[in-house]
């Protein structure tokens, strides 16, 4: 295991020179000084820190604050009028991973890393892989695995909720270092298209890289200009993994497979007869989903207690990862049976069984299609009411996709806030409503998400499945530039189901 060592200013200059990114170094005769910290946040600077000047909105005042706080030197694409040494580079984003890799002493080399990309299912797949590995570690005396997802972070030191899918490279390397220093052997993480496009995972070699699926999402002026850029960004994962795992059911499978063949090893999974790990006999047994998987090592039955027929694909991805990591099949079975992904397919039923509420994180067209298909299959003949919104200032294509799918399959839609940020909720809701209307579906726009959940539940008078989508177990709502406390869809669903039960129990 590599331990943290402190490198000199000269070491960072050499690192960037070898990477072909160095333009100029003004050392002021301080080549031998030790670098004691690395950050791009001026408020986090301490004595001896190498400060990174990054971002389109970077202001010289940030650098001046860093100097006041004790920055030893800075790295930038341009020179500033401050009295500390500097390194000038041609591309600060490409330079950052090299700096972080050196500062934290390449911690990823001491971890067995699994990276998951896809439009839908990344978080659930992280939970599934974690459950499998943790069962294996418990049986063999190892440490619980680390995880980095859009919901949770655990690295052996930090345990917290998350607001971002793939952290910036400095934070990412710090998480890796925490895991290594905590004697953790395995780490599973979501790898977003943004993380790949903007070089956050550059230089890292994943043991396993998983491609789940692809559909239009994250296309906006601040994300991806078009679908091709979105797909190509995701495909970059295959140039950074030892084993590529591909879902043969994904759209654009030919392009995905062509890219995946660049990895040293390729595993495929799905229901297709040609899949290396093939699922068959997928069925419901009570509330459980049961399926079999056959490959060259086993022919095994698996049980998912977590609802949603579509989760078989996510479970297959986890099985493929465990297969690639040489984890025995019994831990795949036990891990998947007990696995739960918080805020995903959370079920609440009224006592009279008239209402089934599903709280799920579904937040794009593909996840909506899977969610509605699963609800219609598992709750045949029931009315469907959906409650959802779309985030502000990004992924504008979701408004059309989610509005169209919800309008097509719902008997009524409630359009509510979902992290509107600095974009007026009325504008977001109006754009969603346009596509709901095109499907001749009645809808209501409500500015209070909790009140919409209450109204939808308490007004039920016939067998209904209520889909509350987009936020899962999240406990904040982004309004303006701040995150406002929100009790979560799960809390409100439970609260108003209990209120419904009281009212109808007394009737």
UniProtKB/TrEMBL annotation:
A Gene Ontology biological process term: cell division
Pathway involvement of the protein, from the record: Cell wall biogenesis; peptidoglycan biosynthesis
Post-translational modifications reported in the UniProt record: Carboxylation is probably crucial for Mg(2+) binding and, consequently, for the gamma-phosphate positioning of ATP.
Cofactor(s) the record lists: Mg(2+)
In-chain residues carrying the UniProt-annotated modification N6-carboxylysine: 234
Keywords: ATP-binding, Cell cycle, Cell division, Cell shape, Cell wall biogenesis/degradation, Cytoplasm, Ligase, Magnesium, Nucleotide-binding, Peptidoglycan synthesis
Primary location recorded for the protein, binned into one broad class: cytoplasm
Ligand binding (UDP-N-acetyl-alpha-D-muramoyl-L-alanyl-D-glutamate): 42, 165-166, 192, 200
InterPro entries, A to Z: Mur-like_cat_sf, Mur_ligase_C, Mur_ligase_C_dom_sf, Mur_ligase_cen, MurE/MurF_N, UDP-N-AcMur-Glu-dNH2Pim_ligase
Stretches assigned to the Mur ligase central domain: 116-322
Enzyme Commission number(s) from the entry: 6.3.2.-
Domain annotation Mur ligase C-terminal: ranges: 343-472
Signal sequence, renumbered to the chain: none
Cited function: Catalyzes the addition of an amino acid to the nucleotide precursor UDP-N-acetylmuramoyl-L-alanyl-D-glutamate (UMAG) in the biosynthesis of bacterial cell-wall peptidoglycan.
Protein name according to UniProt: UDP-N-acetylmuramyl-tripeptide synthetase
Organism of derivation: Candidatus Scybalocola faecigallinarum
């Amino acid at each position: 295991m590599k331990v943290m060592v402190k490198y000199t200013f000269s070491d960072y200059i050499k690192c960037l020179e070898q990477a072909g990114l160095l333009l100029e170094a003004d050392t002021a005769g301080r080549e031998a000084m030790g670098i004691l910290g690395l950050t791009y946040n001026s408020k986090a600077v301490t004595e001896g820190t190498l400060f990174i000047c990054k971002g389109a909105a970077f202001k010289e005042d940030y650098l001046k604050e860093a100097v006041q706080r004790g920055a030893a030197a800075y790295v930038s694409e341009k020179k500033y009028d401050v009295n500390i040494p500097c390194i000038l580079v041609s591309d600060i984003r490409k330079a950052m991973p090299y700096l972080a890799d050196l500062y934290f002493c390449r911690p990823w080399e001491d971890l067995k890393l699994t990276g998951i990309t896809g439009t839908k299912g990344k978080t659930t797949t992280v939970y599934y892989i974690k459950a499998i590995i943790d069962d294996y570690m418990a049986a063999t005396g190892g440490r619980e695995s680390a995880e980095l997802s859009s919901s949770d972070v655990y690295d052996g030191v930090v345990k917290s909720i998350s607001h971002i899918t793939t952290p910036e490279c400095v934070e990412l390397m710090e998480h890796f270092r925490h895991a290594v220093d905590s004697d953790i052997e395995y780490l599973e993480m979501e790898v977003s298209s943004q993380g790949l496009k903007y070089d956050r995972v550059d230089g890292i070699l994943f043991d396993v890289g998983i491609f789940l699926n692809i559909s239009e999402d994250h296309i906006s002026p601040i994300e991806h200009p078009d679908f091709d850029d979105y797909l190509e960004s995701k495909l970059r994962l295959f140039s950074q993994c030892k084993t590529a795992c591909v879902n043969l059911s994904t759209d654009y499978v030919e392009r995905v497979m062509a890219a995946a063949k660049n990895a040293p090893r390729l595993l495929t999974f799905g229901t297709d007869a040609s899949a290396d790990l093939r699922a068959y006999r997928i069925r419901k047994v009570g509330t459980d989903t049961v399926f079999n998987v056959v490959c060259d090592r086993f022919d095994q039955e698996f049980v998912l207690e977590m609802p949603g027929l579509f989760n078989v694909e996510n479970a297959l991805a986890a099985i493929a990862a465990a297969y690639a990591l040489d984890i025995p099949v019994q831990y795949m079975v036990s891990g998947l049976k007990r696995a739960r992904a918080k805020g995903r397919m959370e079920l609440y039923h009224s006592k009279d069984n008239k209402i089934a509420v599903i709280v799920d994180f579904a937040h794009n067209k593909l996840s909506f299609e899977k969610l509605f298909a699963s609800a219609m299959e598992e709750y045949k003949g029931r009315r469907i009411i959906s409650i959802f919104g779309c985030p502000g200032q990004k992924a504008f294509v979701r408004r059309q996709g989610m509005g169209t799918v919800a309008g097509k399959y719902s008997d009524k839609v409630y359009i509510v806030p979902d992290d509107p940020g600095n974009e007026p909720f009325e504008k977001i809701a109006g754009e969603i409503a346009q596509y709901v209307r095109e499907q001749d579906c009645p809808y209501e726009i409500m500015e209070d998400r909790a009140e919409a959940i209450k109204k939808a539940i308490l007004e039920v008078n016939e067998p209904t499945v209520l889909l509350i989508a987009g936020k899962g177990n999240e406990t904040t709502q982004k309004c303006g530039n701040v995150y406002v406390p929100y009790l979560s869809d799960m809390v409100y669903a439970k609260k108003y189901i209990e209120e419904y039960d009281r009212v109808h129990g007394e009737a």
